[in-house]
Structure to design on (243 residues):
């Protein structure tokens, strides 16, 4: 549903420069580029395979791509030049012990009238997955090291100088699919989100994902998002001095 939320909540917003931080193997940067009219996307990732894959996918869709290969450290953000109209930072901050410094550094590169899209897993869903799988995220070098409830995420945004325009609990189909996924000890590449486990478990995981998504869409996705929230979806802008 993140793709639909991007289309809905970025509709009418125009961007020339777009930055996608930690994109993994997803299409969100390209979706946002098409919605906002941006002709190119700049990607930051620590995995060269991700950068190469995103560049090729952009080429297929008539977009140009710039790849910046580095780990997210405050000093490394100096490699960014100028300001961006739109910054995507999705499923990133839960991996960072220095999330506050990184978000502040990114906001420094956000244009005055720019927007930032942030998604993170909800604290409740993270604790649920740890309950059904005590080894969840324990031994992965790129695993989750932070948890965010609504108050904590709002505080992170506020202290970085951002004000939410949209703040939604969402992704209930991922709550269902991840319960199976991590409950049955499937494996995922945490730095990219790439699923490593195949076979019957992978088949059932895909079926649960697709069927639950159809059910929730047919019966009220926003209501299910409040009941079984896997992620928060946020669109924010810079706080102006007079706000």
């Amino acid at each position: 549903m993140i793709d639909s939320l991007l289309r809905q909540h970025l509709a009418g917003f125009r961007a020339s420069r777009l930055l996608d931080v930690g994109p993994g193997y997803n299409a969100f940067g390209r979706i946002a580029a098409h919605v906002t009219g941006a002709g190119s996307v700049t990607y930051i990732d620590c995995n060269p395979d991700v950068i190469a894959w995103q560049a090729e996918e952009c080429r297929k869709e008539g977009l140009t791509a710039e790849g910046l290969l580095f780990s997210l450290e405050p000093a490394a953000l100096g490699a960014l030049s100028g300001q961006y109209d739109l910054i995507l930072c999705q499923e990133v901050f839960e991996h960072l012990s220095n999330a506050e410094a990184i978000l502040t550094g990114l906001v420094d590169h956000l244009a005055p009238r720019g927007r930032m899209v942030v998604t993170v897993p909800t604290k409740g869903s993270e604790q649920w997955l740890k309950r059904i799988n005590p080894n969840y995220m324990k031994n992965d070098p790129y695993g989750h090291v932070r948890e965010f409830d609504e108050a904590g995420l709002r505080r992170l945004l506020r202290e970085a100088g951002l004000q939410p325009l949209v703040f939604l609990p969402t992704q209930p189909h991922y709550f269902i699919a991840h319960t199976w996924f991590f409950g049955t000890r499937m494996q995922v590449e945490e730095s990219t989100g790439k699923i490593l486990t195949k076979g019957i478990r992978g088949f059932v995981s895909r079926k649960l994902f697709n069927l639950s998504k159809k059910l929730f869409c047919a019966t009220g996705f926003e209501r299910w998002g409040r009941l079984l929230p896997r992620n928060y979806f946020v669109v924010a802008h810079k706080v102006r001095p007079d706000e």
